[in-house]
What we know:
16% of the residues lie in helices and 39% in strands. The longest helix has 25 residues, at 3-27. It has one domain: Jelly Rolls (Sandwich), CATH 2.60.120. It has one helix spanning 3-27; strands spanning 59-60, 69-75, 80-86, 91-96, 102-109, 112-113, 116-120, 123-127, 132-140, 144-151. The protein is globular and about 35 Å long. It is of the alpha+beta class and 152 residues long. The strands form two sheets. A five-stranded mixed β-sheet has the order 1-3-9-5-6, with no helix packed on it.
Amino acid sequence: MNQAKKHQFDYDQQITLIIEQISRIEEENLLRTPLKEIPTPPINGSTKSRPLSTSQVATRIKFSTGSYCGSYSGKFSGGREFVLNLRRGQTLTSRNTGGGIQYDVLATGPTGPIRGQKVADNRIDYYVPATGDYYIHVESTINYNSIEFCAF
């Protein structure tokens, strides 16, 4: 199996596992944050990203001057939504720096949903196709966790 097919197979396996776990959580009625459908790309020229969650305000992650990274530590019960302003061509890295397992369930930007690639047990990388706000809804297997976002 060549490297590209292996990565796609690994990615597909991860997505399948995440979907199964989300279904299990929903069945157990533990997921308290209802989610909208993933927004589709803008139709009438609007490039504004929209939040994924219907019942929570996204936590804006800001990078300190001279830094490529920003982080959050706190409650993840029912999932947490983050928003980052990114530039076209950057690679966004989402890294679990706490315990448990992190799942970036949904990610969307000005042109619609983006797909991440799991490059390590605690890290997912995203290619940023357009400049603007990107919303990422993160689930965790524990109620209190820490996450770091870096953009290069």
